[in-house]
Write a structure and sequence with these properties.
The chain has 204 residues and is an all-alpha fold. The protein has a domain at 69-200: Tetracycline Repressor, domain 2 (Orthogonal Bundle), CATH 1.10.357. The chain has helices at residues 16-32, 39-46, 50-56, 60-85, 90-105, 110-119, 121-148, 158-172, 175-181, 185-200.
């Protein structure tokens, strides 16, 4: 009988050591891009062998994906906390959501945006998917609450406001367009969300 190959184990995501790997990779990748940061560089900074690093993350792309998922988990946790705390105060919630997204996007530097667009388009699709999910989930609920309090215009359906926001984000928040316009991720998000929110607010 042919010898059965052992199945490749998944990274030990609950391990403190693996969380530390993701934290260091996140800091390096988001600040400097991932083309210029090698697995050797990360292993040296972590004080571990490259073999140990690859035992947890079989490829650089696997580590980049882990970094992205870690980032989105943190964003979602912050948005969920804000949504719960500010449920009765829509205006304050909008400001807090806006500040939260600004803070998170400030971590992502142009080098990372350039690299994800050129080197890993499949991971950029993951970014777009998660981004759509978060906008629909958190901004959709907030706009509905805003209509009840008279803060958000009632003449535009909530789903249409969300689709306009998603369309604007998708058009601007992609690597090629950001580089063409000379914008950082933070500048792009700030401009798009501010313009859409101003259009959705009820004039007083």
């Amino acid at each position: 009988m042919p010898t059965r190959k052992p199945q490749q184990q998944e990274p030990l995501v609950d391990s403190a050591a693996v969380r530390r790997v993701v934290a260091v990779a996140r800091r390096q990748f988001l600040a400097h891009g991932f083309r210029t940061v090698s697995m050797d560089d990360l292993a040296a900074e972590l004080g571990m062998s490259k073999k140990t690093l690859y035992a947890n993350f079989p490829s650089k792309n696997a580590l980049i994906e882990a970094v992205l998922k870690d980032k989105f988990r943190e964003v979602e946790a912050d948005l969920a906390k804000l949504a719960q705390e500010q449920a009765a105060h829509v205006e304050s919630a909008l400001q807090q959501f806006f500040s939260c997204l600004q803070r998170h996007t400030a971590e992502i530097q142009p080098a990372f945006v350039r690299d994800i667009g050129r080197e890993t388009p499949e991971l950029f699709q993951l970014v777009e998917q998660k981004r759509r999910e978060l906008i629909r989930r958190y901004f959709g609920g907030l706009f509905e609450d805003g209509k009840k309090t008279g803060m958000i215009r009632s003449d535009i359906p909530t789903h249409l406001i969300i689709e306009i926001l998603l369309g604007a984000v998708q058009a601007i928040m992609n690597p090629a367009k950001l580089m063409e316009l000379g914008l950082t991720v933070e500048q792009g998000y700030s401009s798009v969300i501010r313009l859409v929110l101003e259009g959705a607010l009820q004039k007083r």
